[in-house]
Amino acid sequence: MTAMTSGNTGTSARADANRRRILDVALAELLRDPDASMDQIARAAGVVRRTVYGHFPSREALISTLVDEAVEALSAAHAAGREGVRDPAESVARSVLTVWHIADRYRLLVALAQRTVTMQGIRERLAPVRETSVRILQQGLDEGVFTSPLPAPALAYVHEQVLFGLMEAVNDGLLDTREAGRSAAVTVLTSAGVPAGRAAALVAEVSGQLHQGSEQHDAR
């Protein structure tokens, strides 16, 4: 019995490792070539096509899984960015800058996913992040930090669309990727009624703090 359990565990571990490798390679291949086929992904991963289909029954299922992982990463970044921050404007600035750092890796995937997962499917996956954003925006509106003719749920929806739009602008070469994160944060803040000068100064301050924190983390 022990030998069988050990064998099953080993097989499961190999299957998990194969699945992880396929996902990692698929993301790289699809970002390099949005039309990459399952055959191309299998070759790049060093496995036969049957192995890829054993984990993902279709290309759409593979892309859907990648989108799920991207949303999970974005959700974690959104939470980490605002952790311990009380001021709504700073919370928004930090969350947008932290999310954009992750989103920049996935922006081509989001564009690709619109062909298969659809924007509605992506929005549904982002519902928990949106709910948190609504709470922060409502707090800011209640405290007078934000001013908008829109209620918090509608404003959160607008911010989401702004970020998707800026991703497309980077994809189309209309916005420098190095400035995109700051531009996104300032745009979101000003659309919530924060004066442009205040928004730019806050984003510059927060960006510097995040960059310094990242350097200190890398130095450890």
From TrEMBL:
Pfam families: TetR_N. The keyword DNA-binding applies. Residues 37-56 bind DNA. Transmembrane segments: none annotated. It comes from the Bacteria. PROSITE patterns: HTH_TETR_2. Residues 16-74 form the HTH tetR-type domain. Keywords: DNA-binding. InterPro entries: Homeodomain-like_sf, HTH-type_TetR-like_transc_reg, HTH_TetR. SUPFAM superfamilies: Homeodomain-like (SSF46689). The keyword DNA-binding applies. PANTHER family: HTH-TYPE TRANSCRIPTIONAL REGULATOR RUTR, POSSIBLE TRANSCRIPTIONAL REGULATORY PROTEIN (PROBABLY TETR-FAMILY). This is TetR/AcrR family transcriptional regulator. It comes from Streptomyces thermocoprophilus. The lineage of its organism: Bacteria, Bacillati, Actinomycetota, Actinomycetes, Kitasatosporales.
